[in-house]
Design brief:
Elements lengths: L3 E7 L2 H13 L6 E6 L5 H15 L5 E5 L5 H7 L7 E5 L3 H8 L6 H14 L4 H6 L1
Parallel strand pairs: 1-2, 1-3, 3-4
């Protein structure tokens, strides 16, 4: 059993990240699903979909929910899962974070939170400083 990953993001951010990840790695070692949040729909509608996706991803180890922006609608929808599911929510998803997560498919939910945060932060670099020195 593995931890599932649910991306809840504005519009097509999550879908684009998942597409890029699949292009880089091919078959993914962790199950990943995306819930794109579009503002023409009601947030409660997305809560229902998030709940269903979370149930389908949870194989007994829980679900890591990644959102693009803390405090925005996708993050609020992700937080609505906390009372009823074994989830951890991390805001600020980026491609380095996802790549790093895929390197640890047998990790437990709490470890994956730390791996996600580490990968996300370590993937942000001042390239000029690296080149200069």
């Amino acid at each position: 059993m593995t931890v599932g990953i649910l991306l809840i993001t504005h519009d097509d951010i999550g879908s684009s990240l998942l597409y890029s990840l699949q292009q880089m790695l091919g078959t993914l070692p962790l199950p990943v699903k995306v819930l794109p949040i579009r503002h023409e729909n009601e947030p409660l509608e997305f809560c229902y979909h998030a709940d269903n996706l979370c149930r389908s991803l949870n194989q007994g180890q829980g679900v890591l929910v990644l959102t693009d922006l803390f405090g925005a609608t996708p993050c609020n929808i992700a937080c609505s899962l906390i009372p009823n599911h074994r989830v951890r929510v991390v805001g600020g998803v980026n491609l380095p974070m996802l790549v790093k997560l895929m390197n640890y498919p047998s990790s437990d939910l709490d470890s994956l939170v730390n791996i996600a945060m580490s990968g996300g932060c370590q993937g942000v670099l001042d390239v000029n400083k690296l080149i200069e020195g």
